[in-house]
Design a protein that fits this description.
The protein is α+β, with helices and mostly antiparallel strands. The protein is built from three helices and five strands, in the order H-H-E-E-E-H-E-E. A five-stranded mixed sheet has the order 1-2-3-5-4. Strand 2 and strand 3 form a beta hairpin. The N and C termini lie close together (11 Å).
Length: 135
């Protein structure tokens, strides 16, 4: 089975960074794979991804749990929560084209506000479940 991890990350990156409301909330910084050393807040990052074979009859399929992280220094959780809402508008139950796959479905599975050791940082992680069928 071929992995969907890289084509899925490319598709999510293109869709999220192509969304003007999301980009306005992160002040044009977007969604990072590797965060630049002096990146200013707020921004979002790719986190972990868990991929499980999910075949059906003669169809090769995968289910991926993709974690994204939202980072903010705005007092309280309102800025990070607004960024989460923007991500959901772009990804949750929205069409996504992933190279090499068809029947792609994305759903917000869960999110968590996490207290960071740095009291100035607000952090939300969000997990999207993605179902894909190999072309």
């Amino acid at each position: 089975m071929t992995t969907a991890l890289w084509p899925l990350q490319e598709a999510v990156y293109a869709k999220v960074t192509g969304n003007a409301p999301f980009m306005a909330l992160v002040k044009g910084k977007g969604l990072f794979d590797e965060v630049p050393e002096k990146a200013a807040h707020p921004y979002a990052t790719f986190g972990s991804a868990t991929e499980v074979v999910d075949d059906a009859h003669n169809q090769r399929g995968l289910t991926v749990n993709l974690v994204l992280h939202i980072w903010s220094k705005y007092p309280g959780v309102s800025e990070a929560a607004a960024i989460l809402a923007a991500l959901d508008t772009v990804l949750d139950r929205q069409p996504l084209s992933v190279a090499g796959f068809r029947d792609v479905s994305v759903a917000h599975q869960q999110h968590q506000h996490v207290r960071d050791p740095d009291p100035d940082i607000r952090h939300i992680n969000v997990t999207y479940r993605v179902w894909l069928t190999k072309e």
